[in-house]
Amino acid sequence: MNILVTGGAGFIGSNLVRLLVTTTAHTVLNVDALTYAGNRHSLDDLAENPRYRFAQADICDAAAMGKLFAEFQPDWVMHLAAESHVDRSIDGPGAFIQTNVVGTFTLLQAARAHFEKLTGPAKDRFRFLHVSTDEVYGSLGDTGLFTEETPYDPHSPYSASKAASDHLARAWADTYRLPILVTNCSNNYGPYQFPEKLIPVVILKALRGDPIPVYGKGENIRDWLYVVDHAEALHTVIAQGRLGQTYNIGGNNERRNIDLVLLLCALLDELRPRDDKRSYAEQITFVTDRPGHDLRYAIDATKIKRELGWTPKQDHTSGFRQTVQWYLDHQPWWQSILDGSYKLQRLGRAEG
Question: Is 135 a catalytic residue?
Answer without folding.
Answer: yes
